[in-house]
Specification:
By secondary structure, the protein is of the alpha+beta class. Helix content is 19%, strand content 41%. The radius of gyration is 16 Å and the shape is globular.
Length: 118
């Protein structure tokens, strides 16, 4: 019986959706943020290639620094990579920088407004 409980817990954990909010908390997951930001720039299937979990110094709130790889666009401009910072507790995304395949800056957005939520 003791071996069954840890296995059952692992099974339940594996079945939780990766792109949803963490169960029982109000924090956005990196996967949920990647989908939302990717969708804003035309690729909701973008892949996370860089992830740092940290704390915002001024407010002591949990935050992420995320890098995505995908096919992004803003108007006529196209990019391969997006990097941005985001709070974990609410929709606040800033410092979006888009790079082409050679890692040259294509565009940047200082902040994504709340109306950008998808």
């Amino acid at each position: 019986m003791r071996a069954v409980l840890p296995a059952f817990f692992l099974l339940l954990t594996a079945l939780l959706p990766a792109n949803a909010h963490a169960a029982g908390s109000r924090h956005l997951t990196p996967a949920a943020l990647a989908v939302r930001v990717g969708r804003i720039f035309g690729d909701s299937r973008a892949r996370i290639i860089h992830l740092e979990r940290t704390t915002a110094e001024a407010s002591n709130q949990r935050m992420y620094v995320i890098g995505l790889r995908g096919s992004f666009r803003q108007g006529a401009r196209h990019a391969r990579y997006l990097y941005f910072s985001a709070l974990a507790g609410r929709w606040h995304v800033w410092g979006v920088v888009a790079y082409d395949a050679r890692h040259h800056v294509v565009w940047n957005d200082p902040i994504l407004p709340a109306r950008s939520r998808f």
